[in-house]
């Protein structure tokens, strides 16, 4: 085994030589691969610069790679364990002289032989191997080929880097040095020339932008270094592109490093710009300008439920404010000045409505929804440029309840006495919130317990037409036409019933007609009429009857509990609180007259049956029984008094005056406590002031109605002229004549719009004081007129028409003009209703008609070109003064002679300008139409004069004829003069009757006033006959 120790030492020398060679070769490999990593670091430095984070990451990655390469190629071979067998094999592979002895010795030498012979054989093998190793240098067994290969490559790379760094010190050399230095030294300061040569970077706060037209913009530019020259903002509008030079504006320096700014106000055109400093320029950018979104209004279409049989209502509104019944479908269309990409309506109660852009009308978007409740919402519109516009006003949707029609009988009021051939003029006013469909009169004769006989007062409105919301009824109910003929001492009862399109019914109070005897002139040669019984009416049954009647009509719609409660309350109100018994209502005057007692018992029995039925909630029976009882009371209360009256053909004209006198007399029945003289004067003065104040308000309202009528006429006229222009001149054709005509239309439309604005201000002012200075009903109607004005916006529609006309688009202007007419018509109707409330009785209506006739006469007189000659005056015979009066008066100035007065020259009239004549003709035309309407309501004046004036106003060219045609003007002047004189005469008659009653109150004792009243009434009628 001693020989094997020698062999092992030899193998150890070879092992160490191999490891040294492997480690040195590994170092060459590490050097080669590190050179590659170094090259990658220089490339990264060239790309990313000397930024700290990338630099630190690159160093870390490079260091990890070098450690890995060094461990694998140097440390791993050094610490590798190589057995003797592998070394022997390695030597055998590189030297064939050992002939396998070295392999055998290494394999069997460590263990020895198991037998002596084996041991001797192994010793011999080892000895042979040792002998052979002694002959060679074992270190030479390790080849140096690998070392030389990698060493030469590493040397070439090192020499190449060295030579290149020497040849290019400013590029590769310095960059390599910066890589090898972890924190490179700061560069030396540059000179001004060097700085000027360096590139300059511009960082702009705004590059390509898309802004609304007219917006302002503030630019900020941050430079990469201190500029050597001033910083300039360069721009060029799109209209000058390729034509003009760039415009330059100096930029203002900011309080930050290398910062500058520029403010551009009111940008109205697409502009290209860049920032420069000397020869250094930024990239060019573009500011694109688009039209800002402008909301031009809303088109609101209301489609009512099918039950209403009404056409859809289309309105153009400035603010969406819709009121409709449940089940109505509302379509809202947004009108803009540019394409709309969408809109969203967000309800206050939750939920949204999406609007869809209209492909045909791309500047609009629409959405529809059903009305189920009242709500408000906010609307946000998005245009084609993604600009969002939030509508400042809320969208308001009001769910209104459709109420049944409301009827008010103007005349007759209460019970009216007539002869069997009499004619009762029934006048009533009917209002409904959505439109009146039918109006009927239902009457009952005597003890009729049926549902009555029905008369159609007005025809049913056309299917699909727009029904009237307010309607006046004037119906002559002729007793002579009834079959069978009306008997004397018969009592008729009646009421009016109206239905709306939904089928809801509204009824009036009951009216009573007591048929009496013919007047004195008609019964002189007839038998003496029978005497009437007289009873004492202790309590008026009529209010109870009307209360039960209205409760009965509301039975289908009232909740059952509410109906029973109201029926019980009404039944309790008919009981005397002191006795808890039913009121007697009628008692006999003569307690010993059996006929009167039986008649009162019959009436009491009817009232009792009605009361019992009311307690059982049977209002139908209650109404029937109480109606018949009231008829009996009225019949028994007719007095047998023959009066001197007018013949039938003149009674109708005197009816209103007689009623007015009766009303005044009734107000004097209850004698007030005596007043002092001072109290009377103060009261009269206050009443006179209040009357004057109300007269002024009525006059103001009448003027507003006249102005609206004139504006309506003007708007219709300009619309017709525009339609004529559309028919004659195509829109594409523009010449001097067509432009002149269009300019004239524009000026006329602007003038009408100015007049409309003035009337709007008057209505708004009137509305602000109406609640405090006018009757509640009048204030309510004025408020309705104001709401109609705000809802329909006639001025806005006129503005739209003006814009279209100014753009030479008359065809597009015609629809806007028609909408303006419709809006004016609604406001005019509302103001007429308000004016009617100021003339609630015949006297007020007569006074209004008289004032209108006076105004019309003045306007016609202005238009008359003929001078006004003063009529001949006759000298008045003056009584001779007494002697003492002569001395007292002294000298009198000489008076002109009568013949001088008669021959006086006609008074010269001031000639009107064309504009003044036009305005006077417009006003006369409007006043004439108003006067016709108001005279027809009460049949004022003579029928032939009314018909003549009505015929004149039907002429559509009346205004122009009044301006130019003297014959037509004279015709109008004569008719107006006759009407004016007749109205003044009728008004004086009314005032005379009122003064008679006033005198009666002041001078006649109370116990004689009833007789004096009848005397004065008969006297005034006889004077009319004369």
Task: Describe this entry's structure for a reader.
By secondary structure, this protein is α+β, with helices and mostly antiparallel strands. It folds into 6 domains: 2-180, no CATH class; 200-290, Sandwich (Immunoglobulin-like), CATH 2.60.40.10; 295-399, Immunoglobulins (Immunoglobulin-like); 406-645, Sandwich (Immunoglobulin-like), CATH 2.60.40; 691-838, Four Helix Bundle (Hemerythrin (Met), subunit A), CATH 1.20.120; 841-866 and 912-1026. It is built from 27 helices and 31 strands. Strands 11, 12, 13, 14, 15, 16, 17, 18, 19 and 20 form a 10-stranded mixed sheet that branches. Helix 12 runs antiparallel to helix 13, helix 15 crosses helix 23 (914-938) and helix 16 (736-773) runs antiparallel to helix 18 (794-806). The chain is elongated, with a radius of gyration of 58 Å.
- Poorly predicted spans: 519-532, 638-654, 664-672, 869-906, 1020-1026
Main sheet characteristics = 10 strands, mixed
CATH class of the largest domain: Mainly Beta
Distance between the termini: 182 Å
Q: At the third CATH level, what is the topology name of the largest domain?
A: Immunoglobulin-like
CATH superfamily grouping of the largest domain: Immunoglobulins
- The average pLDDT is 76
Rg for CA atoms? 58 Å
How many separate domains make up the residues?
A: 6
The CATH level-2 architecture of the largest domain is identified as Sandwich
Secondary structural class: alpha+beta
Net shape = elongated
Please tally the β strands and state the result: 31
Tally of contiguous helical segments: 27
- Approximately how much beta-strand content do the residues carry? 15-25%
Assembly state of the chains shown: single chain
């Amino acid at each position: 085994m001693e020989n094997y120790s020698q062999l092992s030492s030899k193998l150890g020398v070879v092992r160490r030589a191999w490891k040294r060679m492997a480690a040195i070769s590994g170092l060459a490999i590490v050097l080669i691969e590190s050179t590659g990593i170094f090259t990658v670091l220089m490339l990264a430095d060239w790309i990313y610069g000397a930024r700290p984070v990338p630099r630190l990451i690159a160093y870390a990655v490079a260091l990890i790679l070098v450690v890995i390469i060094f461990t694998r190629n140097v440390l791993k071979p050094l610490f590798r364990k190589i057995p003797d067998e592998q070394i022997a094999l390695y030597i055998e592979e590189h030297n064939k002289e050992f002939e396998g002895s070295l392999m055998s010795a290494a394999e069997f030498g460590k263990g020895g032989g198991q037998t002596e012979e084996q041991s001797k054989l192994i010793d011999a093998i080892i000895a042979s191997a040792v002998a052979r190793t002694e002959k060679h240098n074992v270190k030479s067994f390790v080849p140096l080929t690998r070392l030389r290969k990698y060493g030469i490559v590493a040397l070439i790379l090192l020499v190449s880097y060295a030579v290149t760094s020497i040849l290019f010190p400013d590029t590769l050399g310095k960059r390599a040095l910066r890589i090898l230095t972890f924190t490179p030294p700061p560069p030396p300061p540059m000179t001004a020339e060097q700085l000027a040569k360096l590139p300059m970077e511009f960082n702009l706060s705004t590059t390509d932008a898309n802004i609304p037209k007219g917006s302002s913009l503030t630019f900020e530019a941050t430079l990469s270094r201190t500029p050597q020259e001033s910083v300039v903002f360069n721009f060029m509008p799109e209209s000058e592109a390729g034509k003009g030079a760039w415009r330059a504006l100096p930029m203002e320096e900011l309080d930050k490093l290398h910062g500058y700014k520029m403010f551009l106000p009111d940008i109205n055109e697409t502009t290209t710009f860049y920032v420069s400093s000397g020869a250094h320029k930024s990239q060019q950018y573009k500011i694109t300008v688009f039209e800002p979104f402008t909301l031009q209004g809303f088109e609101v279409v209301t489609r009512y439920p099918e039950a209403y049989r009404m056409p859809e209502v289309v309105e153009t509104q400035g603010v969406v404010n819709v009121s409709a019944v449940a089940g109505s479908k509302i379509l809202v269309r947004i009108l803009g000045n540019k394409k709309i990409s969408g809109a969203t309506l967000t309800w206050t109660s939750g939920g949204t409505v999406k609007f869809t852009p209209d492909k045909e009308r791309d500047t609009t978007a629409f959405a529809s929804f059903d009305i189920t409740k009242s709500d408000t919402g906010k609307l946000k519109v998005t245009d084609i440029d993604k600009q969002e516009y939030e509508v400042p006003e809320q969208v308001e949707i009001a769910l209104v309840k459709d109420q049944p029609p409301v009827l008010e009988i103007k005349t007759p009021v209460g019970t009216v006495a007539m002869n069997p051939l009499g004619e009762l003029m029934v006048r009533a006013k009917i209002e409904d919130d959505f439109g009146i469909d039918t109006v009927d009169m239902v009457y009952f004769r005597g003890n009729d317990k049926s549902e009555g006989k029905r008369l159609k007062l007005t025809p049913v409105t056309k299917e699909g037409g727009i029904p009237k919301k307010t309607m006046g009824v004037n119906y002559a109910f002729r007793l002579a036409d009834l079959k069978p003929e009306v008997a004397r001492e018969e009592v008729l009862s009646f009421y009016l019933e109206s239905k709306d399109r939904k089928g809801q019914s509204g009824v009036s109070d009951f009216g009573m007609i007591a048929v009496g005897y013919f007047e004195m002139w008609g019964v002189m040669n007839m038998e003496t009429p029978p005497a009437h019984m007289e009873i004492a009416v202790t309590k008026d049954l009529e209010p109870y009857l009307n209360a039960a009647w209205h409760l009965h009509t509301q039975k289908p719609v009232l909740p059952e509990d509410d109906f029973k409660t109201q029926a019980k309350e009404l039944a309790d109100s008919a009981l005397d609180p002191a006795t808890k018994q039913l009121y007697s209502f009628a008692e006999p005057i003569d307690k010993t007259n059996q006929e009167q007692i039986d008649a009162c018992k019959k009436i009491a029995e009817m009232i009792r049956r009605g009361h019992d039925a009311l307690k059982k909630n049977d209002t139908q029976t209650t109404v029937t029984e109480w109606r018949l009882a009231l008829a009996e009371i009225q019949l028994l209360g007719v007095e047998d008094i023959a009066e001197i009256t007018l013949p039938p053909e003149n009674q109708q004209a005197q009816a209103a005056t007689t009623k007015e006198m009766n009303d005044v007399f009734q107000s004097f029945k209850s004698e007030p406590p005596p007043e002092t003289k001072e109290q009377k004067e103060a009261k009269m003065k206050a009443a006179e002031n209040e009357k004057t104040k109300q007269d002024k308000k009525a006059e103001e309202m009448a003027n507003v109605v006249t102005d609206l009528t004139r504006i309506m006429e003007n708007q219709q006229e300009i619309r017709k002229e525009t339609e004529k222009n559309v028919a004659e001149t195509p829109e594409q054709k523009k010449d001097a004549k067509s432009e002149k005509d269009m300019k004239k239309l524009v000026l006329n439309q602007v003038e009408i719009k100015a007049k409309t604005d003035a009337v709007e201000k008057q209505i708004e002012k009137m509305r602000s004081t109406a609640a405090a200075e006018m009757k509640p009903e009048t204030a309510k109607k004025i408020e309705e007129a104001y709401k109609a004005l705000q809802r329909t916006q006639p001025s806005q529609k006129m503005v739209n028409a003006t814009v279209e006309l100014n753009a030479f688009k008359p065809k597009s202007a015609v629809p806007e003009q028609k909408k303006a007419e419709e809006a004016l018509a609604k406001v005019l109707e509302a103001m007429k209703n308000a004016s009617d409330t100021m003339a609630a009785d015949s006297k007020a209506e007569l006074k209004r008609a008289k004032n209108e006739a006076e105004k019309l006469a003045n306007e016609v007189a202005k238009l008359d070109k003929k001078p006004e000659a003063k009529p001949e005056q006759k000298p008045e015979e003056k009584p001779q003064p007494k002697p003492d009066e002569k001395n007292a008066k002294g000298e009198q100035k000489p008076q002109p002679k009568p013949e001088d007065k008669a021959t006086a020259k006609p008074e010269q009239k001031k000639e009107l300008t064309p504009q003044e004549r036009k305005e006077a003709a417009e006003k006369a035309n409007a006043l004439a139409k108003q006067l016709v309407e108001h005279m027809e309501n009460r049949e004022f004046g003579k029928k032939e004069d009314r018909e003549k004036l009505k015929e004149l106003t039907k002429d559509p060219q009346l205004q122009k004829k009044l301006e130019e045609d003297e014959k037509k003007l004279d015709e109008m002047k004569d008719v107006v003069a006759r009407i004016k004189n007749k109205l003044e005469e009728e008004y004086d008659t009314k005032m005379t009757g009122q003064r008679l009653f006033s005198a009666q109150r002041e001078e006649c004792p109370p116990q004689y006033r009833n007789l004096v009243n009848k005397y004065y009434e008969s006297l005034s009628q006889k004077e009319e006959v004369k």
